[in-house]
Write a sequence for this structure.
């Protein structure tokens, strides 16, 4: 009886909501000069989740609006935005005429590599303001960690120094990253080392994350996701900002950002200088990071010319070995790197066990509007990278370094009244200090032609990039150096890689509500490796690839508040340098990987609610995965597996629960499997390998569940309290799905308070308090494992591993002054 009454009450409430008056806002958007309709203009209701874009005739409509006062923003690329305050108490018709800007906008620079409103791919846009709210010196992966399907990790445990991200279980080597449309992934490793660009977020105007294959872009293939960053755009007025943050582990960030605004109606100059220091949560995992960014631009009505110069310098104490599992419960901050035993038998740590690297980026960007419908972009770029990491090696074999063992002549050892004669002997081992160096040049050009008229949007683009890298190692000190010279070079090799691609993308409005999309890309890669590796092996080899990557999809606007899309895409990826150099010399060489990606999404927007759902199916052919084996020098070996897949659903919502309370949340549920996997376990007794077959096993580092939640309370204007929760399910460290080799699931909560005030001293002062890991959750976000067999027929498996604990409760205080 109780449930029956409850049902009647609920139905009554539901019916009553339909009785509230709901109205429609409609109109047209056109060009003020000439009255031409503008197709694709954005119409947005501020403080709500309602927005739409105009049809071919410039018309728009937003229905189911409640009576009240609204602020409407109408914008279109190349035109001045218009903001109007309207009162709705019945159907309202609002026509808006936009005036063309006197200068071009920076958005045209990266237009060819981004998804638009009706592009049928899964993407997320993040503004500079959202990045700035959490930026207290942490690297980019930490700042975007609340986006769907994202898992981040930090070697130092506090998000400063070496950090990385995985999206849908895909690591950084398979995530395409571009900066103003220019490739940022290292050409050989395919990785992005965010530590080389400290505080880059302070110079990012906005970024877009595409999950899945996404649209065609420049550089390495997006094999799970892509990240497209745009640096600071044009500021019409002069500005300056000082930012300082200090907190746990002696973390300190200082930065200064400034700009001249538009000078003489056509010139601008912007800059930033940053310094970040931290001791890190892990022992000796310190970071000392410096960076700066300078940009100068020329703007006219049809032309932009920009020159960007960006430099980053890092010195970090190495912490990439992790912590052995057997001591995790007793010493979560242990770092064994740099440990050695001195001549008196005392255990010490080498002070300069550091990674040292500098990376300088030069970008010349040119954009020109050929006519009202045609834009051209050309960019020239050059990146110089140079650095090394230094290590103290305890009792290494001199022969591993090409050093002839020195001979000790026969001599007597006298002890009291006794003496012993020792024959001539060779010193085979010695303490030494080595450096592994990398010196590389990366340069090339990117280009695109963008056409938009009526129902068509077409882009032709491509790039040519060349990489020249030099790898070499030196011994800078040895206790027993033999006849070697100071700075003895014990290995040297080069890597040269040429990457060329062409792509064409077309969007066609079949009707006001149906948009078709097609995308094709051709890539050609030539990768040459020449020389001797650090294990004295000749690694000379050549590899050439040609890939054809097609994509197609459809976007359907179901109503002014809902839409659906679906797409299919194929991507190919070549192996990276370590896949080749670490491969078993007696086994097959790794081959290229292929990904078939299907994305289907739905979006619903109301005044106070935005819901999105996306179903993805990613089928791999010849995916490269870890086997569990190591090569003859101890490096992990990867192999192609014939069939594997990732499939799941991504749900996200933004809800305005009350005027003072909003809730943003997302959840990913996925299944990530390798159909057939052969694990190889080294037998240390006879040098053989045991093969263990696994069927339908889990892909390493691919949690079944990833979720984020953020409650934002604004009790008074300009003051907000955010309660942030991140949940990550269990992850396996290798591909065997063994609970003996896993990362436990974890839930971490943060609390952030932000207060902004306008003063006579500055335009705005912002004060922030971030309490990370509020409830002191003990968890690890990354690990590595190697196991072997020993002991004959009655022997056992032995494992070596390293886990990466993240910081417990920690605090950061920040202040930003804007002038």
């Amino acid at each position: 009886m109780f449930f029956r009454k409850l049902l009647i009450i609920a139905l009554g409430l539901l019916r009553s909501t339909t009785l509230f008056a709901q109205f429609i806002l409609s109109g047209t958007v056109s060009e003020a000069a000439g009255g031409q309709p503008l197709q694709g203009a954005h119409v947005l209701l501020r403080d709500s989740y309602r927005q739409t874009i105009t049809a071919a005739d410039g018309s728009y409509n937003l229905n189911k609006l409640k009576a009240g006062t609204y602020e409407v923003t109408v914008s279109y690329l190349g035109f001045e935005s218009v903001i109007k305050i309207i009162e709705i108490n019945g159907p309202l018709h609002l026509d808006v005429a936009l005036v063309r800007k006197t200068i071009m906008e920076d958005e045209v620079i990266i237009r060819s590599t981004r998804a638009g409103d009706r592009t049928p791919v899964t993407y997320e846009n993040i503004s500079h303001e959202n990045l700035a709210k959490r930026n207290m010196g942490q690297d980019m992966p930490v700042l975007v960690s609340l986006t769907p399907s994202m898992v981040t990790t930090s070697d130092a445990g506090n998000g400063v120094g070496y950090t990385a991200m995985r999206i849908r279980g895909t690591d950084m080597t398979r995530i395409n990253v571009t900066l103003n449309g220019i490739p940022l992934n290292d050409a050989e490793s395919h990785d992005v080392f965010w530590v080389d660009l400290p505080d880059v977020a302070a110079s990012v105007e906005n970024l877009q994350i595409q999950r899945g294959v996404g649209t065609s872009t420049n550089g390495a293939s997006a094999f799970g996701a892509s990240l497209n960053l745009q640096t600071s755009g044009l500021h019409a007025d002069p500005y300056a900002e000082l930012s300082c943050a200090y907190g746990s582990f002696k973390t300190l960030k200082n930065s200064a950002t400034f700009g001249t605004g538009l000078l003489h109606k056509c010139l601008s100059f912007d800059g930033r200088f940053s310094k970040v220091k931290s001791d890190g949560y892990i022992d000796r995992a310190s970071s000392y990071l410096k960076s700066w960014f300078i940009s100068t631009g020329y703007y006219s009505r049809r032309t932009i010319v920009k020159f960007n110069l960006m430099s980053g310098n890092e010195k970090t104490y190495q912490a990439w070995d992790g912590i052995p599992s057997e001591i995790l419960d007793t010493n979560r901050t242990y770092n064994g790197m740099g440990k050695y035993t001195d001549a008196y038998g005392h255990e010490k740590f080498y002070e300069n066990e550091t990674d040292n690297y500098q990376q300088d980026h030069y970008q010349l960007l040119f954009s020109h509007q050929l006519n009202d419908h045609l834009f051209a972009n050309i960019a020239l770029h050059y990146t110089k990278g140079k650095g090394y990491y230094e290590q103290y090696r305890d009792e290494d074999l001199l022969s591993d370094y090409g050093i002839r063992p020195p001979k000790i002549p026969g001599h007597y050892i006298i002890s009291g009244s006794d003496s012993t004669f020792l024959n001539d002997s060779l010193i085979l081992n010695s303490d030494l200090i080595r450096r592994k160096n990398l010196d590389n040049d990366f340069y090339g050009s990117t280009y695109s032609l963008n056409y938009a008229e009526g129902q068509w949007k077409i882009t032709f683009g491509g790039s040519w990039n060349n990489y020249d890298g030099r790898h070499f190692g030196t011994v800078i000190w040895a206790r027993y150096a033999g006849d070697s010279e100071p700075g003895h070079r014990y290995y040297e090799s080069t890597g040269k890689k040429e990457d060329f691609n062409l792509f064409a993308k077309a969007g066609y409005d079949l009707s006001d509500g149906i948009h078709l999309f097609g995308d094709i890309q051709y890539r050609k890669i030539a990768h040459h490796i020449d020389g001797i590796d650090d294990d004295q092996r000749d690694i000379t080899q050549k590899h050439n690839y040609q890939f054809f990557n097609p994509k197609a999809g459809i976007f359907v606007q179901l109503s002014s508040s809902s839409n659906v899309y679906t797409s299919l895409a194929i991507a190919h990826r070549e192996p990276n340098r370590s896949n080749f150099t670490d491969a078993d010399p007696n086994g097959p060489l790794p081959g290229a990987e292929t990904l078939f990606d299907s994305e289907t999404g739905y979006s619903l927007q109301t005044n106070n609610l935005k819901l999105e759902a996306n179903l993805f199916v990613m089928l791999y052919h010849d995916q490269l995965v870890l086997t569990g084996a190591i090569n003859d020098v101890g490096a992990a070996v990867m192999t192609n597996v014939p069939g594997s897949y990732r499939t799941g659903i991504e749900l996200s919502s933004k809800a305005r629960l009350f005027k003072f309370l909003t809730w943003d949340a997302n959840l990913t549920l996925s299944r990530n499997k390798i159909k057939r996997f052969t694990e190889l376990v080294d037998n240390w007794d006879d040098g053989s390998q045991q093969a263990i077959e696994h069927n339908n096993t889990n892909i390493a580092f691919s949690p079944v569940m990833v979720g984020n939640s953020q409650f934002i309370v604004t009790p008074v204007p300009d003051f907000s309290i955010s309660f942030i929760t991140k949940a990550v399910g269990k992850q396996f460290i290798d591909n065997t799905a063994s609970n003996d080799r896993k990362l436990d699931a974890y839930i971490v909560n943060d609390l952030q308070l932000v207060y902004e005030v306008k003063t006579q001293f500055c335009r705005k002062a912002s004060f922030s308090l971030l309490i990370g890991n509020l409830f002191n959750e003990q968890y690890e976000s990354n690990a590595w494992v190697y196991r072997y067999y020993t002991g004959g027929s009655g022997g056992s498996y032995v494992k070596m591993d390293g886990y990466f604990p993240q910081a417990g409760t920690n605090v950061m205080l920040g202040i930003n002054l804007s002038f």
